[in-house]
Amino acid sequence: xxxxxxxxxxxxxxxxxxxxxxxxxxxxxxxxxxxxxxxxxxxxxxxxxxxxxxxxxxxxxxxxxxxxxxxxxxxxxxxxxxxxxxxxxxxxxxxxxxxxxxxxxxxxxxxxxxxxxxxxxxxxxxxxxxxxxxxxxxxxxxxxxxxxxxxxxxxxxxxxxxxxxxxxxxxxxxxxxxxxxxxxxxxxxxxxxxxxxxxxxxxxxxxxxxxxxxxxxxxxxxxxxxxxxxxxxxxxxxxxxxxxxxxxxxxxxxxxxxxxxxxxxxxxxxxxxxxxxxxxxxxxxxxxxxxxxxxxxxxxxxxxxxxxxxxxxxxxxxxxxxxxxxxxxxxxxxxxxxxxxx
Length: 342
Description:
- There is one protein chain.
- By secondary structure, the chain is mostly helical.
- It is about 50% helix and about 5% strand.
- α2 runs antiparallel to α3 (about 65-90).
């Protein structure tokens, strides 16, 4: 049970909406099972994006600060945000058949971020899918104190976005049932530390600063930061998951297709548009966003929107825990040769 049900969040006794919608779509459009699979080509996108960030760090290794910061905002933020999406693909085992290979690919994708986070993200994100809206298990839900502190002030919202990676690090202590440290977490920390030391020693401190500034822009005070508001803040009354269908999906590997992803977490990024097209009567009936930049400004200055605009639920039993297997569970039974290519 959520420990503070009366603190301003909306609280529902109903299960999350995605499992029932998955079953509905499978009944009406069984052909969508063809979208399920893996996309091993995604690993080469990881390699190319990491190489891009290394090239940028090399080029900016002796540049003045007035050039490093704009470069991080215009180029680095988009590259590092794409790497976040690629880590997300690894989290759902959508690249390789073996989970360990996906975890290792996620650690590689994490390197240009400067801070070790891919394995932690994997642990907490899978709980987010399994227990969406349950305060003590879903790390995507803001802390109650966090929501109170930020309130509706545009300035405090901007600071919250600026420090978003650090704020997220305050949420795991309230969560249960997750092993905080294991060998993969240690491997993530060791690999990241070695990478950062190498960048500092070979390219110099400004190269590392470029990567770190890119990281903070990619998830924070930047139009890309609106993605975190788009996904689960109830901008549309009663709708706890929302998709974005704007042009930035081309650079963000379709991560805006968030309802589609939660309904079918075993569909890789390149097939999410096809999934939406297969069930237009379902997805076109839901509210959606067409501009991250517009949502960014609206979140900052619309005092009707706060961090409390989230759906909590207390029911973690019954339908929530014992629902029928979704395609995410069925993916393990697919033949190894079945992959989703672009």
